Amino acid sequence: MEDITLLQQSFENFNKATVDLQLAYARLEERFANLNKELEEKNTELVKTVAEKEQTKNYLQNILESLINGVIVTDLDGKIQTMNSCAEMFVSADQANVIGQHVSILFEDTVANEWPTINLAEYFKGESGNKVRINGRTLEIFCSPFKSPGGATIGNVFVLRDITRIEKLEDMAKRTEKFAAMGEMAANIAHEIRNPLGSIELFASLLLKNLQEKKDKERVVHIISSVKNVDNKISNLLMFTRKQSPKMKKINLHHILAEVLDFSEQIMQQGGIDISVKYDGEQACIEGDADMIKQVFLNIILNAQQAMPDGGVLKIKSIASAGGFIPAESAVAEIIFQDSGPGIPEENLSRIFDPFFSTKQDGAGLGLAIVHNIVSQHNGSINVENSLRGGAIVNVSFPLLKEVNEKLERPVK
Questions:
Q1: Cα gap 395→297, rounded to integer Å
Q2: Which of 12, 59, 128, 230 lies most in the core, judged by the most C-beta atoms within 10 Å?
Q3: Calpha distance 287→333 (Å, rounded)
Q4: Is the dihedral of CA 95, 96, 98, 101 positive or negative?
């Protein structure tokens, strides 16, 4: 009987323990469900945060890629961390190939053997920046520290601004101002000289009629010839100083260039010069005077021909720059002439547009000065430099018509 009582008590204890265990398990299940729900909420919040951060990252990346200035970010050691497409274009480098390398690798062809010893962050720091010539562009580079949210400097940001066209326009403005002063002075002098020259020619002609000796006649004829030569130079001078009024209308530079090339083809063939022409589409339309633009192109082509007396190659390329990293108001049509001659001596480069400056024995030195005036009247720019491979490069640019800008900027469907 006592054993049965103990057995019943044991069953009761077991049943009680089972109930307690079930209750504990139920509480555990409830707690697990709460934890699982809380975990799902946290996971949803985390996914949302990651998506927002990715969206912000893409937004900032799109802003970076949309800038018309180049941006390069480095760490404190000068190693490249990121750069935008504009910077890639300016320095002709692919981001994937330069990540982790020192930023000086982008400028090693600019100042040979110097960049590795320079602290570029300090060199490019300042309000005015520093100018660097690279890949045919003039870049103004600024540097500022890249800081963390806490304010600690963790790297440097280099901003590259293309000022090639601005620089050309500044040079054009300086030359135009100088030419205006020189032109006014030259015109006054020309008129003062022309009057006595006319008298000399008149009296020499009268004297020639009364002379009998052959030697005396030859001397007077020589005087008259010299007077006419001087008068011709004065006429050229007055043509340079006289501001022609261009007859502005819509013209296609490609058509103008083709006409000039047809006209000069025989001269170039006789000189053993091959011409290579590459047109950039059919949209090089500007507002200008066709005859004056022909004079510009013909003068440049003839100068190239004279620079290659033993024959050579003249490469002509057109570029219609609009859209992309170029602001619409700055869009230009460029015509680039590159010859294979000896190039221009460095000491003459800054003087080639000066009136009366000529390296030719019988040259008047007004050809390029007149070209400069015509380009200036069309709000364009002209720049001459030597190619690294030899020869000279003449770059003439004119503002594109607004309708052409819009057409070039319109995305291709």
A1: 11
A2: 230
A3: 11
A4: positive
